[in-house]
Specification:
Helix content: 25-40%
Order of helices and strands: HHEHEEHEEHE
Number of strands: 6
Largest sheet: 2 strands, parallel
Radius of gyration: 18 Å
Strand content: 5-15%
Number of helices: 5
Structural class: alpha+beta
């Protein structure tokens, strides 16, 4: 297991080289589709996925012939608290500006300390439950058809919503709202 850039070139390289056949067979990557933008919306008790306009991962899967496996982590937004964007709109705008020009941003978060439970950088001791969805089979094409990409993207979103509906009462009992798929 390792870390790599999430650039198109890097992902295509990982999926096309190595593995038992030397052509990427059996290789897999995990992408946090919402990225830095989604991290700014992370608040305990809520789950907002930045996914509506993010289709590059689907195009990558079609070009590589790699099946997509939707996964949903319940509780990951509960291990840290961050500055509320509605209470501090100027700070939130500044974070978005940094993201626009630098390509990344740092959420202002806090949790517990090593010897205290009030303030610190250690995550709160709260469970994170990851549910793996049904794989979506992909037909490989070097030039992905936009209609096919839209269809697969919709199936991916539908599977995430199915996971949410099936498991929310088990893993998100104290939720403040329902799953939102935004942007």
């Amino acid at each position: 297991m390792g870390l790599a850039s999430v650039s198109r070139e890097s992902c295509e390289n990982i999926l096309s080289k190595g593995g038992p056949n030397g052509e990427g067979m059996g290789r897999a990557i995990t992408i946090v589709v919402g990225g830095a933008r989604e991290s700014l919306d992370a608040t305990p008790g809520a789950l907002r996925l930045v996914l509506k306009r993010r289709k590059g991962f689907v195009k990558l899967a079609v070009r590589a012939g790699a099946d997509l496996v939707p996964c949903l982590a319940f509780g990951e937004n509960d291990v840290y608290e961050q500055v509320d964007s509605t209470a501090h709109p100027y700070l939130h705008r500044f974070q978005l500006l940094v993201k626009k020009f630098a390509g990344f941003t740092v959420p202002l978060f806090h949790a517990r300390g090593i010897f205290n439970y009030d303030v610190g950088m250690m995550p709160y001791r709260r469970p994170i439950n990851v549910v793996v969805g049904r794989p979506i089979e992909i037909l490989q094409s070097k030039t992905p058809d936009p209609t096919y990409v839209d269809q697969i993207h919709q199936r991916y979103q539908d599977e995430l919503l199915r996971i949410w509906d099936e498991w929310k009462d088990t893993f998100a009992r104290q939720r403040l709202g329902e799953l939102e798929i935004v942007e």
